[in-house]
């Protein structure tokens, strides 16, 4: 069986130098050797990187509280689909379902959790982690190609997943939907542009080399609308694939919410000189600037362009709301009950101290609180209902509303 490097070299021989986005796609998603396809052990604190759900269960618990509030803003409908893209090992889904069942039984009864995962290895892990929930029909795991090609978001996903139980009755024609994506868009393949044009990858003498081609009209339009043009010796990413994906998601949400949490930036920040050239490789919690060192064995990522994502949601009839930091978002949800969700199982002072440190990592600037941004978009929900969401309310002065 050829290695991933050999497969990439073969494609270059057949097609000529390939766009960087294609190289990144093969490194991350090749079915045999791609970083996300090989196994699930690269996730978590013992792997190459970890997400907020790896830090403490409170992340899922706080989001469960926010999802339940969104469900009520949507009229406490009889059914609601919560669709998570890129659910990883399923820890977040597990925490949301467990906490919802315990604290929000009405919401839990209405809820179906749809896990959308392209990696066969991760789907196997999800089916193991959430075996009881999947068996009961409360959760279902599908490929991204299935749910998007069928355009079933908001339609009860009836063509690709099992129907709800007979006890719950038939699906409504349009099921209110919450779409959630945590550290998902940063792994989308990107185009890389410089004053030389659009980056291409060639192979010579057993190594990958960079060449340049004329930038396409689509790439230049992306820079014009959502980003900045590179200056001398500078590289800028164009998130064409993420924008197209967001267009498809937003177009298929009939009524509901979209939430994306990721490290990223706005066009205004780029104009101010920040986040200009964010591509990096990650391996065993170490960052490298060389994406060609170990194809398929390291993560390749780029900061998310939230200006482009927000524009895509609005182009499809959604309303994008003001970007907030993860710190503001979680503090807004947790401050009402002083983060009781985090400390409920603590019996000893040392247990509370440990949880307090984990919570601090999620919400403070020194941890993940300021480096991660939260984009919320809504469709078919009154502005007054949206403005009351806890995740958007931290630091707001009610006397000035």
Short description:
39% of the residues lie in helices and 20% in strands. It is built from 18 helices and 17 strands. Strand 6 (191-194) and strand 7 form a beta hairpin.
Tell me what the structure shows.
This protein has 401 residues and is α/β, with parallel strands linked by helices. The chain is 39% helix and 20% strand. The chain has 18 helices and 17 strands. The strands form three sheets. Strands 2, 3, 4, 5, 10, 14, 15, 16 and 17 form a nine-stranded mixed sheet that branches. Strands 1, 6, 7, 8 and 9 form a five-stranded antiparallel sheet that branches. Strands 12-11-13 form a three-stranded antiparallel sheet. α5 (58-73) packs across α6 (91-103) and α12 packs parallel to α14 (306-315). It is globular, with a radius of gyration of 21 Å. The N and C termini lie far apart (63 Å).
Largest sheet, in brief, is: 9 strands, mixed
CATH topology label of the largest domain: Rossmann fold
Taken together, the total number of domains comes to 2
Beta content comes to 15-25%
Task: Kindly state the number of beta strands.
Answer: 17
User: What number is the mean pLDDT?
Assistant: 86
- CATH class call of the largest domain: Alpha Beta
Q: In angstroms, what separates the terminal alpha carbons?
A: 63 Å
Number of helices: 18
C-alpha Rg (nearest Å): 21 Å
């Amino acid at each position: 069986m050829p290695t991933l490097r050999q497969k990439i070299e073969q494609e270059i021989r057949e097609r000529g130098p390939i766009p960087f986005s294609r190289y990144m796609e093969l490194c991350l998603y090749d079915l045999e050797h791609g970083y996300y396809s090989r196994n699930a052990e690269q996730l978590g604190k013992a792997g190459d990187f970890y997400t907020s759900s790896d830090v403490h269960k409170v992340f899922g618990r706080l989001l469960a509280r926010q999802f339940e509030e969104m469900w009520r803003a949507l009229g406490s409908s009889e059914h609601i689909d919560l669709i998570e893209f890129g659910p990883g090992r399923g820890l977040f889904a597990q925490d949301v379902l467990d906490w919802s069942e315990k604290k929000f039984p009405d919401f839990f009864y209405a809820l179906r959790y749809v896990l959308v995962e392209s990696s066969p290895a991760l789907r196997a892990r999800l089916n193991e982690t959430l075996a009881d929930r999947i068996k009961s029909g409360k959760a279902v795991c599908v490929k991204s190609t299935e749910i998007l090609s069928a355009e079933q978001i908001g339609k009860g996903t009836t063509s690709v997943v099992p129907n709800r139980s007979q006890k719950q009755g038939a699906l409504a024609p349009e099921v209110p939907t919450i779409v959630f994506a945590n550290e998902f868009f940063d792994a989308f393949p990107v185009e890389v542009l410089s004053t030389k044009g659009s980056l291409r990858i060639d192979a010579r003498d057993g190594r990958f080399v960079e060449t340049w081609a004329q930038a396409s009209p689509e790439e230049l339009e992306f820079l014009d609308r959502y980003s900045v043009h590179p200056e001398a010796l500078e590289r800028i990413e164009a998130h064409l694939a993420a924008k197209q994906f967001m267009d498809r998601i937003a177009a298929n949400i009939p009524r509901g919410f979209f939430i994306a949490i990721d490290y990223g930036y706005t066009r205004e920040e780029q104009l101010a000189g920040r986040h200009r050239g964010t591509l990096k490789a990650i391996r065993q919690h170490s960052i490298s600037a060389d994406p060609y060192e170990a194809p398929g064995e390291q993560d390749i990522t780029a900061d998310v362009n939230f200006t482009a994502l927000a524009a895509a949601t609005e182009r499809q009839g959604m309303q994008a709301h003001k970007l907030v930091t993860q710190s503001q978002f979680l503090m807004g949800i947790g401050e009402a009950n002083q983060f009781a969700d985090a400390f409920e199982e603590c019996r000893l002072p040392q247990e509370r101290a440990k949880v307090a440190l984990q919570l601090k990592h999620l919400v403070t600037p020194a941890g993940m609180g300021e480096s991660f941004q939260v984009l919320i978009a809504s469709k078919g929900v009154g502005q007054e209902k949206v403005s009351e969401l806890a995740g958007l309310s931290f630091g707001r002065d009610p006397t000035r509303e």
